[in-house]
Structures are given as structure tokens and as C-alpha cells.
Amino acid sequence: CLVGSEMCIRDSFRAWVMAMVATYGLRNHEVWHLDSLPGEDRDDGRLISVGHFSADGSGTQTKTGHRFAIALPEAWLDRYRLNDHNHSRAMLAELRRRKPIKTVERADGTVQFINNEQLGRVLTHWMRNGGRPDRELPVHLYGYHQPRQLPGKPKPKEKRERCKLYDLRHAWALRARETTTWSTSLKAQAMGHSEAVHARRYLV
After folding, report:
1. What is the pLDDT of residues 111-162, one digit of tens each?
2. Residue 61: beta bridge partners?
3. pLDDT tier at 179, thresholds 50, 70, 90
4. For the ranges 19-33, 120-134, 190-204, which has the lowest average pLDDT?
5. Cα→Cα distances 162→14, 71, 129, 141, 172, Å
6. 177: which residues sit within 8 A by CB, 6+ positions away?
7. Which residues neighbour 191 within 8 Å (Cβ) at sequence distance 6 or greater?
8. Rounded to an integer, what distance in angstroms lies between the CA atom of residue 1 and that of residue 81?
9. Are 100 and 57 within 8 A, CB to CB?
10. φ and ψ at 102, to 5 degrees?
11. Coil/strand/helix, residue 103
């Protein structure tokens, strides 16, 4: 709820966006680039199709294909109305209306996506916005993390801090590790990175 002086307004739009990020372990900007939504895959209603990009080093990205992401936990599809097709389509359209995707076409005919970084920053600021805290989500998420232990030093204590948006993606990977028997290959494909990256970040 967004709490005012005498009223409470449900923010179903931002709730849907954040639930998609958390349920599927998406990167900040990827929710704009959903090619299919929950329930639209005829073989597995848990899957969504997410646009896949390659960077050219200049801050622009080319859409090179797509990957399938997997809902985890599956119960969140019902809990957050992600499998309500009409609702999800309306929320995705509203997201793209409020902050449109910007593209340019190059001479060779490829389409460059030029504002993925800015799109991702929108969600980042929903979680933490030092300049405009009034624009943050009304409920702050907190978590504990274990700082790295330096050689020859005692193990540092866990720290409790405000969560960042990317922590929702990290949490998906940790749930996958703790609650499934999926292969490293499957988890890496679902997150859109290599097995080596997945093992280095999440299997330690």
C-alpha cells in the first residue's frame, strides 16, 4: 500500500513489476523486454520468454534472441496475479507506456536498444532513491550479507542493510540452489549467463 495522511492506495502496477523481477530473477531492464508472459507457453505455463541482448561497447545493445526464464517459486504466479493474462498484459503495456523503449536502426538494418540502462534505473530508484525517497516503494526490504573474510583476519560479522533491486535476482539463484535439483546449465540458461558465471557467483 501507498500510505497517505488518511488513505491507502494499492499500487498494483509497481507490485506486478517487482513480482515479475523477483519470481523470474530478471535483470533490471529485462521486464520491458518480455516476449511472452506466464501461461502463454503452451508446454509450460511457468515459463516466460525474455529478450536477450549483446552489447557493442558504446552503451547500446542489439537484441540477439531470447531465453526462457522459470518461475521460482511457482506459487508466486497465483499470489501476485502473474498468471492473470489480462492483468499481466495490461501491466506490461503500462510499463512501456510510462517509460518507452528507445531504439535506433543502423545502416546495416540492425536495431539498437539505446536506453536499457535508463530503464533499469527506474526500478533501481523504486527500491532506493537518495534524492527522492518519497518516490521509493513504501515498504523497504532488508537483508543480511556476509562480508568477505580477508586472509589472516577474523571472520567479519553479518551486516543488515537495505536491499538493492539486484538482490531480487540474486535471491532467485539462491532459491534455485537450495530448493531445486536443476542442473547448473539450466539455472544459468534461465538467468541468461554462462555456467562459469553462475558457478562463480552462486555455487560458492
Report:
1. 899 999 999 999 999 999 999 999 999 989 999 888 888 999 999 999 999 9
2. 55, 113
3. very high
4. 190-204
5. 18, 24, 12, 6, 18
6. 187, 202, 203
7. 25, 69, 169, 172, 173, 198
8. 16
9. no
10. -110, 135
11. strand
Helices (H), 99-140: 116-127
Other CB atoms within 10 Å distance of the CB of residue 23: 25
Cell of 147: 562480508
As a whole number of angstroms, the distance between CA 146 and CA 163 comes to 14
Spatial distance between the Cα atoms of 8 and 130, rounded to a whole number of angstroms: 24
Question: Counting runs of H as helices and runs of E as strands, what totals does the chain give?
Answer: 7, 9
Confidence tier at 58 by pLDDT (50, 70, 90): low
3-state secondary structure of 55: strand
Neighbours of 125 (CB within 10 A): 17
Residue 72: all three cell numbers together: 521460482
Grid cell at residue 182: 536443476
Cell for 137? 516503494
